[in-house]
Structures are given as structure tokens and as C-alpha cells.
Amino acid sequence: MRDNPLSICEREFILAAVEIQKRIDGREPYDLRKIKITFGLDYGCCHVELGKTRVMAQVSCEIAAPKQTRLNEGTMFINVELSPMAAPQFETRSQDLNTEITRLLERSIKNSRCVDLESLCIMAGEKVWELRVDVHVLNHEGNILDCANIAAIAALAHFRRPDVTVCGEEITVHPADERDPVPLSILHMPLCVTFAFFHNGKCLILDPNEREERVMDGKMVVSMNKHREICTLQISGQMLLEKDQIFRCTNMAVKKVIVLTELIQLSLENDSNARAAGEKFGFAESVETNEITTEYKEESEVDMSDIDDQVVMATQNGNSEDGSIEELELDMETKVTIMFEGTGMIGQGGANTWDMDEDMESDLTEHKQKPQANSRSATIAKHIGGDLSGESEEEDTVMLQQEDIGLQSKPIISSEEPTGNEIDLTAALAKPRGKKKKSKHKH
């Protein structure tokens, strides 16, 4: 997999934006990207996100022999791994950058003696603890050094080594279920802050991203703690800096280091409280999932008893010639269920509560007055097809009463005793046979 080169238009655009104090990601020149620090289930495992740059650090220890020059001190090694998973260019030319980051981390953490190595001594001249810090770059989006430095310091502060007891020449290492692990003695927290220079040192930005690193003239790395003690300083690139520029960068670095130190301490405190309280912790609990269920809200009822009666405006959908609008007043309590903000639901089950007009009430009254048993239907259904409104395809049914067609009821001859409510409709349904004969004679 090959890396995508930066085009000339992109290069000129980035340089022009930096010149007018603008950045392509919307930040101000001296703003850091969003930082997120999370710890794993095991002590000494830390994951840091600096924008889209992701680095994981893991601290481990083992018993080894001390150095001949320092017989009463433990040892510490730092290893940085740049895999092609982080960026395509690391597949071929990652050796130089790997060496540079490893050396800077050793100068910032190991040479500044932020960890008390004398506390790692088990038996002077014979056995000491050997610490190993493995830094894995998961994604490269610029400024790997600062992200790796934060991950390494946070992992060392989070690490716990097993407790040991010495009886004569016998060393006993106690597991975590027998004795609580012992944290490392962290004297201070040196943190790196990277500055990028453009236009021969005239323009300066903090925390450059990957595209800005491609077009910068050079950079300066300042490693210091919150006590304003400079641990290391490195300048690289093709530009010359004045003394005032260096002082200006160190003064800005102090403010950023104080903020980062407080963030690391807060993350350590939150993890310690979660473990002590028995709450969930680790990488799985810190992952933010983008699901619809994250916006789910419980149902809530709204009291609408104090709302006046509503007036519903209804039309006859083209069945009325003059298109008049009727007002239907609903004298009932309407209950609205709020599912979530912006939506609602009305009428879940129950009987129909719509009011009826005068025609429907009169028809219902007449239907109830007529007996239902031992009687024939007294109406004729006339089915009228066609499109009455000109556009609708629905069919209407018109109910005709016997008064509408002018029929007179006749008694029906039956063996049973007549009830008096039966109507003979044979005369109305009789077919004109004489007319059909004439039509056949004409043909």
C-alpha cells in the first residue's frame, strides 16, 4: 500500500492558511487537539488519542541483574514500534523516525529520572526490577512524539509491580491475590510539546497534524514538567531561530504541560475510583458506539386535563357541492403519549369517540325503532357507480326508503298470520315483458 502524496495545491493552501493564522482543521495556531486517555484492565496499559493519532503503551517488569555501574538501581527500556497499520509510509522508511522517537522518549523519561530507579532494587548487586515500556503506534495523524510521551508517562504512573520479600538469599514474589501490587515512584511527569515553523521561522503553530508536518520547514520539541524544568530540547529542520523565539515557545509549553499533567492525574484518579467501587472499567467501557439506541428515551405521559375542548375542522373531500366546512367539537379528554422529543401518539385502542352529524343520528334512530326479528328489509340499495368527484375512484352507496320510491305496502298471502310490518316489493321489481317483445318484433 502506497502513501498518497500531497499535491501542490494542497501545499500552497496550507502555507497560505498558516500565514493568516488559520489551520485546515479549524484550530487556532496554539490549540491542542482533543486528548482522551483510557486504561486497560491490567495495570500499566494505557491508550491515548490525540485527535486521530492513537498510541498504546504497555509497561511490564521482570527480575534481572543490575548494571555494573549502578548496582543498587533498577533498569528501564523504551521500545517504539511503528507498524504499517498506522500509516502506509511506515512499511518502507520507518527506521529513521522510529529511532528518533525512541531517543527522544529516552531523553525525556529515562534521562530525566522521573522514575525512582533505586526503589526497584531487590538485592543490591544481585537482583533488581527491569522495566520495559512498549509503545505501539496504532494510527498516524501527526505529532506521534507528543502522543507517545503522554501514553508512556500515563502507563508508568498506572503500573503496579508485584510485591517481594527477601529472606537471606531467597526472594519470594507474591501474586496479586496475596498482596496488593506496589505502584512505581514517579518523581515528576516530563511531557513533550511540539512546535512547527513555516516561512523560515516567521509562522509558528502548536501540535501539527500529518499534512502540516509535510509542508513545515522545521520543528522544535520541548520536554518539561509543571515545575518549569526543561528535560530536553531538540530543534530540527532547515531554519534558524532566535533566542526570543525559543523563550516564547518554552513559555507556551509550560501552560500546555500543566494542563496535560492535570488531565493525566484526573484520568488516574477516575480509574482508581472505578476499580475501588467495583464499577466497569477498561477499553471496552470507553468505546463510544454509534447506534440508534443511544438516542432512545422512555415514554412519558403529559397531563392535558387543563386544556380546553378542541375544535376539529373537517371537509367532505369533494362530496359537498359548495365545499362548506363543518366544525366538529370533541367534548372529550385527549391523552397524548410523548414517545420522544418532537413526536407524539394519540388514541391507542378504545371505542370510537367521534361525534355524528344529524343525518347519521336520524338514520340510527329510525333503525333502532324498527323491529329486527321476522321482518324483511324495507330499503332498496341503489348502487351508483362512477366517479362523482371527477378524480376519486371510490363507490358511493345511497339508501332509498319506501317513501322515496312511492310504493304502497300490500298484504302478503301466507299460511302464517301476517305481522303487519311486511311489504311486498314484487310490483316494483317486475320486468316489463311487453316492451321486450316489441323490441324483438322490430328486429
From TrEMBL:
Biased composition (Basic residues): 432-443
Keyword vocabulary terms for this entry: Cytoplasm, Exosome, Nucleus, RNA-binding, rRNA processing
Region (Disordered): 406-443
InterPro entries (alphabetical): ExoRNase_PH_dom1 (IPR001247), ExoRNase_PH_dom2 (IPR015847), ExoRNase_PH_dom2_sf (IPR036345), Exosome_comp_Rrp42_subfam (IPR050590), PNPase/RNase_PH_dom_sf (IPR027408), Ribosomal_Su5_D2-typ_SF (IPR020568), Rrp45 (IPR033100)
Subcellular location: Cytoplasm; Nucleus, Nucleolus
Name of a matching Pfam family: RNase_PH
UniProt KW Electron transport keyword: no
CDD domains registered for this protein in UniProt: RNase_PH_RRP45
Biological process annotations from GO: exonucleolytic trimming to generate mature 3'-end of 5.8S rRNA from tricistronic rRNA transcript (SSU-rRNA, 5.8S rRNA, LSU-rRNA); nuclear mRNA surveillance; nuclear polyadenylation-dependent rRNA catabolic process; rRNA catabolic process; TRAMP-dependent tRNA surveillance pathway; U1 snRNA 3'-end processing; U4 snRNA 3'-end processing; U5 snRNA 3'-end processing
One MF term in the entry's GO annotations: mRNA 3'-UTR AU-rich region binding
GO cellular component: cytoplasmic exosome (RNase complex); nuclear exosome (RNase complex); nucleolus
Domain of life according to the entry: Eukaryota
Gene3D superfamilies, per the entry: GHMP Kinase, N-terminal domain
Entry's family note: Belongs to the RNase PH family.
UniProt xrefs under PANTHER family: EXOSOME COMPLEX COMPONENT RRP45, EXOSOME COMPLEX EXONUCLEASE RIBOSOMAL RNA PROCESSING PROTEIN
Protein name, per record: Exosome complex component RRP45
Organism: Owenia fusiformis
